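Below is the record:
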Amino acid sequence: MVIRSPFLFIMFLRFSILSSMAFMYHMVSQFKSKINTMVTNSRKVKITCGNDEFVVKGVVFDKDGVLTGGFDLWKQIFSLYMKVASQKGLCVEKVAIDLFGVDEDPSIAPLSLCTMEEAKCLLAAAIWLMHKIDWATCRKLSQEIVEEAQRVISPEMVYSPLPGAKELFTLLSQHVPVAIATSDSRSNVEEMFKFWQVELPIIVSAEDVKRGKPFPDMLLKVSSLMGIPCEDLVVFGDSLGDVQMAHSAGAKAVAVGIRIPEADSWVQSLLEVSVEVLE
């Protein structure tokens, strides 16, 4: 293209220079962003649990039994389900105790591991086994029982942090990426952090993957979102499913509140965990 007018030539030149500057600024910004990501992901912490030490670039927590609640809380909620069921004329407690594993090892019991949808299904199965009414009605009654029970459950009851949980979570978040991998719903996790008044971390729930625990899918998604290999992560959990998820993805696992032989370490509570930041 030939520009004959001096005025048009100057305007064209100015436009070309400004366009080039804008492009260079964009490229530099992108480069800086990548550098910052790499620096963040290269920082490490040394986590000490008793006699065991783990040098990692990221930390993953299960929710229930690690940060909040636990098996005792789920027993209380189960009792509420049974109370509501009884008010509806349903006598299901005996078979429901077996189906949910209320009196079994917490690290493997459905009561501590199942998703909310699975809990509704188990409750519907208890209704079917005891009353032999049509399955659609069993499912409808199960849904009603859960919804009515949840109306009387306070945020303090389900979201209050266990000893050391909020403090450890906050400390780690200042230095390395932190995530939640839970069988609970995303909305419940968000409500918990709202109750804690803590900024949301990376959250991966059962809703976000095809296969939940003990499969590695949740941790693989966390790894992808963090940009950190699973080998550089440690998982804090309270069930065999948490440990199996971690190991199948290549991460380390620390059992919380209960000894799990397959875990790499264990602590009675998160108060026993110490952190050293490594530059």
